[in-house]
Amino acid sequence: MIWIIAGLFYGLFMAFYTSVNQNRKINGYVLGIWRGLGVAFVSMPMMLITPFIFDPLYLFLLVVQGFLVGFYDSRLFFSSAKFGAAETSRILVFSILISMTLWWSFHPTEFLNIWHRPFVFWGIIVSVLGVILCYLKMLERAFSKRLIVFMLPAVVVWSLMSTLAQEIMLKHELRDGIAYYLVWSMTVSGFYNLYFYIKTQRPTKRQAFEEIFSPKVVRVGLLVILFSTVLIISKSISLAYTPNTGYVNALSLTSPLWIMLYNHWTNRKDDASPRLGLLMIVFLFFLTFFACL
After folding, report:
1. Range of 14-23, 212-221, 259-268, 269-278 with top mean pLDDT
2. Which long-range contacts (CB under 8 A, 24 or more apart) does 111-118 make?
3. From CA 265, how far away is CA 76, in angstroms rounded?
4. Of 2, 176, 188, 212, which sits most exposed with the smallest number of CB within 10 A?
5. SS3 of 20, please?
6. Cβ proximity of 4 and 249 under 8 Å
7. Which long-range contacts (CB under 8 A, 24 or more apart) does 137-144 make?
8. Is 140 helix (H, G, I), strand (E, B) or coil?
9. Cα–Cα distances in Å, from 70 out to 41, 159, 285?
């Protein structure tokens, strides 16, 4: 059950992470720098109580994950500013099917085990489809082509990130995996966004300093660091214990309900249907029920 609780916390903090830039319109690479290097910096003390792990494959996975996180972070921040948090969050639903397929591809025995239990298999399939349909119908308007083109690569990357993060958490002790992820992967992520910020904006040193450390960006950046650290920890715990990474992605997609509340609180127009949101929760309940059988 711990993966369910951690997954729901993941969804809560995912809502903040997705919506933080819809009103502020900060450069996505700048927020990616804060998230990556900021999280790595505050997590550095964890390495003092974490044993050094000399495992080339493990370190390689952490670096690859860092590049994936860097790409996904900036793409999400840009999308939230351009299309809004609700639209950005909604398209992530397709990651459930991608993640489930990846998991079963890497763990065929797990798929065969479920396949030979038709009640569980079809219960999971119907529940997942119910979550996806509720998610897609939660907003009446169709996806814009620009949003699909912009965010579809990020959806695929997010699915790969979940699969890779689980491999990282299971390869050694969970505590060590979390520490190395927070420091190593997030450092790579931060430098990835720093590189593309410099490459795309071509700022002078003074301009870069003034933009990255402007009061507005610092206030948002500190919040991003705080919530992102908790998000990564809750996500890592959930992935370490889940029967399938797709289920964790499904739980994280409760974030639109939190975004709905946030938009209501900030008086931002939101066409999301509360009724379909509640129905999605019902399907999530049945998904976790069948997953635990």
Report:
1. 212-221
2. 117/293
3. 22
4. 2
5. coil
6. no
7. 137/273, 137/276, 138/90, 138/256, 138/272, 138/273, 138/276, 138/277, 138/280, 139/86, 139/87, 139/90, 139/271, 139/272, 139/273, 140/271, 140/273, 141/271, 143/87, 143/90, 143/91, 144/83, 144/87
8. coil
9. 16, 14, 32
Instruction: Return the half-sphere exposure (C-beta side, CA atoms, 13 A cut-off) of residue 186.
Output: 26
Interior CA angle at 83 toward 145 and 139, to 5°? 75
Tell me which amino acid residue 64 is.
Answer: V
Q: How many residues does the chain have?
A: 293
Give the three-state DSSP class for 110.
helix
Give residue 55's Cα distance to chain centre.
Answer: 26
> What does the pLDDT look like over 121-133, one tens digit per residue?
999 999 989 888 8
CA distances from 105 to 100, 108, 112, 113, 201 (A): 8, 6, 11, 13, 40
**The token pair that represents 24 in the structure block:** 């502020």
- Written as one letter, the residue type at 141 is R
Q: 63 — phi, psi (to 5°)? A: -70, -45
Q: Are residues 8 and 254 in contact, defined by beta-carbon separation less than 8 angstroms?
A: yes
Query: Tell me, what amino acid is at 34?
Result: W
Tell me what the pLDDT averaged over the chain comes to: 87
- Amino acid 133 reads L
